[in-house]
Amino acid sequence: MKRIQASKPTGLLRFTLIVCALIVAALGVRSGIAADEGPKATVVFDHAIPNVPGKSMKGILVEYGPGVASVGHTHPRSAFIYATVLEGAIRTSVNDGPAVIYKAGQNFPEFPGDRHTLDENASKTEPAKLLAVFVVDSDEKELLTPLKK
Fold first, then answer.
1. Of 82, 88, 112, 118, which is most buried by a Cβ count within 10 Å?
2. Model pTM greater than 0.85?
3. Cβ(67)–Cβ(121) under 8 Å?
4. Average pLDDT of span 57-71
């Protein structure tokens, strides 16, 4: 039986495949790092409440990638929050209570002084979105403060 030797183009192809595999592996690691950064929060509205001097209503769209979690945190003491899950499912625990999963269409309140000890996408494979509506002091700029470890 005659042995077939790899030609230079085959060697180049092998080299190219190895380089591509390394790039894919590096991008996979990079996306894992990005997931550790937490959810993306976007202010979608910020309006003073005309009949409640000093108070504003702020809408925050929170987008969680698969498996993404936010750090434990609090919100301003002046904030009352009503959150609605728009897509996917969110697992949350407030004030060291039991973890609860809220699915798309479900909503829940958060009261002034509440502490989030768990706040994450309940899925490792699907994204999730949440709209958090804050009623808060108008001059409040920081809407999330990480818990000290």
1. 88
2. no
3. yes
4. 95
